[in-house]
Amino acid sequence: MSVDNRSVVIAGDLLALTKQLRVGDKLPSVRELSKQYGASPLTISQAIASLAATGAVRAEPGRGTFVASGLRQVDPDYSWQSGTLGRPRVDAVRSSRLGAYGSADDIQLSWGYLAPELQPLDELRTLGGRAARSSRAWSMAPAHGLPDLRRVFAAELGAEQGDVVVVPGGQQALVFAMRTLGEPGSVILTESPTYPGAILASQTAGMEMVSIPSDSDGILPHKLAEALERTRSKMIYLQPGCANPTGTTLPNNRRSEVLALAKQHGAFVLEDDWARHLSLANAPAPSLFSKDVDGHVVSILTLTKVLSPGLRIGALVARGPAGARLRNARIAEDMCVPPLMQEIALGMLTSPAWNRHLRRLRSALLERRDVMVHEVTQQLPDARIPGVPKGGIHLWVKLPEGADPTRLVESAQEAGVLVGNGGHFFVDEAPGCFIRLSYGAASIPQISEGIRRLAKLEIS
To answer: What is the pLDDT of residues 275-313, one digit of tens each?
Structure first.
């Protein structure tokens, strides 16, 4: 049942009324309330139903609505929980911003997913309807994923089907891999700046994330070597292709150095290959996984970024005992990824619609990227773009010295534009003056209008 905003307001008024009454007292009738609020009987019924679901009232057909005994007559005391819960692991500020998507009236230049018109929704609806008619979509799936879907993911990286575990999206893959392969209290190294979701994942796993400096070509191998020696870390988190937020792609010589360091120190490289299907070149760079033969690289693929935020499907790919440990632990998470979602993903990946979508998407993202670069250059002349990305959906923008990114983000939101605070992409070092803009989340007119509004704001 759909509950509109009007019914929510009325429900709040009725809840306040119940607190003035005794258990068993009768509320005004639907007809009386409808007249009082100038609302339809359906809206009043929705308000009463929402209160009944919480136990605040009891609706008796033919008799009316009564204050229920389940209603709390005093304010609850949750103060005991603070001492019992202990110190929170997850950064509440980062997590709230990571999941924030604003309202329909906002210009979305922060969202890490595709705008609706870039998603293959017609194809997904067709595939979803077809999959829903299959009995296989409603039965229990193997904990590691549908064999056919695992085979498709494996072919993407030159792996074996048995190396693949299907997971509900890239973020869950990060948390699961860190928690399963890492130890609480141990150090995980990452390039700086980095994806805030990875910082949150390390916090959830109880690991300490330590940042390694990077430049326009990505992580600095000599700094990584120093950190491996100093921390004795056994896990490195990297985005070798189109890193979020900078858009950097790690060149081949540095990839070789990273793999050599992982081998020397007996460390895992957790490769977040989130943008593999979002390359704006003809083909994405070969994955680290494809260059590793000894099982140091654990790779993450996701379809959520390239298809739809609601299609939570991804894959963890790992060889050797690490792969076995991930497969053994998978069933403890959620038994299986819903087979309906897997069937839709499999149908898309094995359909001609997949390559058509990638071609259309590449062209659209390239156009939007170029428009955003042009608008930033023209409208924000004091800002600088460290590097134009060759893939992904984000643009990393350096503000002039003395600018306050937090203030700018807040002012932008008041002006109806959502942008990413650059400070959230740094672990614990001085963040610098950056914002992240997403050209994949908005239309071309929205990009132009959004940057125009930013140009009018005070940024220092």
So the answer is: 999 999 877 888 999 999 999 999 999 999 999 999 999
- Answer whether residue 169 shows pLDDT above 80: yes
How far apart are alpha carbons 414 and 106 in whole angstroms? 9
**SS (HEC) of 335-383:** CCCCHHHHHHHHHHHCCHHHHHHHHHHHHHHHHHHHHHHHHHHHHCCCC
pLDDT in tens, 423-435: 999 998 877 899 9
Looking at residue 1, its pLDDT comes to 38
Non-local (6+) Cβ contacts of 9 within 8 A are none
pTM: 0.82
Q: What residue type is assigned to position 329 of the chain?
A: A
Q: Rounded to an integer, what is the distance from CA 200 to the centroid of its chain?
A: 11
Q: Are strands 208-215 and 394-398 parallel, antiparallel or unpaired?
A: unpaired
Return the C-alpha torsion angle 50, 54, 57, 59, nearest 10. Answer: 60
Q: Across residues 173-181, what is the average pLDDT? A: 96
Structure tokens at 226: 């120093």
CB 168 within 8 A of CB 311: no
Tell me the DSSP string of 35-75: HHHT--HHHHHHHHHHHHHHTSEEEETTTEEEE-TTS-SS-
Q: What is the pLDDT of residue 146?
A: 95
Q: Which residue in 353, 188, 167 sits closest to 274, CA to CA?
A: 167
**Helix (H/G/I), strand (E/B), else coil: 21:** coil
Sheet with 268-272: strands ordered across: 164-167, 314-317, 297-302, 268-272, 235-238, 187-192, 208-215, 218-219
Angle between the N-to-C axes of helices 444-455 and 352-379, in degrees from 0 to 180, rounded to the nearest 10: 20
Task: Report the alpha-carbon distance of residue 274 to residue 236 in Å, rounded.
Answer: 16
Which residues are CB-contacts of 93 (< 8 A; sequence separation ≥ 6)?
424
Q: Say how far apart CA 289 and CA 298 lie, in whole Å.
A: 7
Q: What is the DSSP letter of 431?
A: -
In this prediction, residue 23 carries a pLDDT of: 87
Task: Supply 339's token pair.
Answer: 């087979």
- Is residue 292 within 8 Å of 158, Cβ to Cβ? no
For helices 339-349 and 121-132, what crossing angle results, to 10°? 130
Nearest to 221 by CA among 195, 265, 256, 271: 256
**378, 385 Cβ separation under 8 angstroms:** no
pLDDT the model gives residue 41: 83
Amino acid at 9: V
Question: Strands 57-60 and 434-438, how do they pair?
Answer: unpaired
pLDDT digits (tens, 9 = 90+) for 125-164: 999 999 999 888 899 889 999 999 999 999 999 999 999 9
Chain-wide mean pLDDT for the chain? 91
